[in-house]
């Protein structure tokens, strides 16, 4: 059976230091997923923790890639060294030759050697990853009525990218997790990129608490996507600052820090959340990964 190296391709790892390599990955992801990750260049470039694994042809075209990156999380109050996996794609003419299998094996071996306790990914194709120990974790959002009493709160300021990028980045670097049950503790690039990709996402800054709230209005339902700051205000304070009067609240993360709770409701998106590692067994209550960290 032909080995990946037999196809006249060059294997490259950790190649983002070479601007041509990064541009070749941007082109691959544009061609396969129609997304423009070069938007990150205005915020300082790709995640420096990224470890891309790729195959390139003689013309410098990236024909296949799979990347790992650091995405520390908290599970039941315990910090967990976790890796995310993303940017998995093979150009159509190169598929079915084992390139992706080779890149997955390399990436998982690398994260094992780096002693990551947990692997995380979002995919439409869970069967691809099951042979490597990944299993699907059901996601739940939390739905309920808004708090009946709201505190006095000055109106939140609206933020926008790219103009407010530095202020948002500084909060993302100092953030506390939005939930102690399960949330990301540090991740910046995906928050910025997801904001750029989805024009319906609103960012509002509560001055008193110094937090940025990522949210959407879906009819009369307030969808809370993430809260970024050094402490998490109550849901009542957030709603008071946003100056909205929703009939319903749906939070896209567990509500243990919000001084409010909603009914856990199965969330069915285009992708499923998968995890690899024994520590995933510690997740026994409903969780959801904030859509702002989607990757
Ligand atoms: C999915 C994709 C990356 C596979 O690339 P590839 O180089 O053809 O895959 P390989 O030839 O290395 O096959 C690897 C394994 O995955 C399996 N596989 C391939 N495509 C699959 C699919 N769509 N669903 C489930 N399994 C699949 C193969 O049967 C093979 O299994 P084996 O190791 O047991 O033999 C490629 O089709 C692609 O880029 N698709 C569009 C983007 C995408 O879906 N990316 C994944 C994002 S999570």
Q: Choose one word for the global shape.
A: globular
**Order of SSEs, N→C?**
EHEEEEEHEEEEHEHEEEHEEE
Name of the CATH architecture of the largest domain: 3-Layer(aba) Sandwich
- Identify every distinct bound molecule in the structure, by name, code or SMILES: coenzyme A
Radius of gyration: 20 Å
Q: Largest sheet, order of strands side by side?
A: 1-2-3-6-7-17-8
Question: In the CATH hierarchy, what is the class of the largest domain?
Answer: Alpha Beta
Computed structural class: alpha+beta
Mean pLDDT: 96
Number of domains: 2
* Percent range for β-strand residues: 25-35%
Question: Which structural traits does this protein have?
Answer:
single chain; 295 residues; alpha+beta; Aminopeptidase; 7-stranded mixed β-sheet; 5 helices; globular; binds coenzyme A
Please write out the topology:
Layout: E1 10-13, H1 19-33, E2 51-56, E3 62-70, E4 73-75, E5 78-80, E6 82-90, H2 99-113, E7 118-123, E8 135-137, E9 139-144, E10 157-159, H3 165-174, E11 182-184, H4 189-197, E12 202-206, E13 211-218, E14 221-228, H5 235-242, E15 248-251, E16 263-267, E17 272-276
Parallel strand pairs: 6-7, 14-15
Antiparallel strand pairs: 1-2, 2-3, 3-6, 4-5, 4-11, 7-17, 8-17, 9-15, 9-16, 10-12, 12-13, 13-14
Bound molecules: coenzyme A.
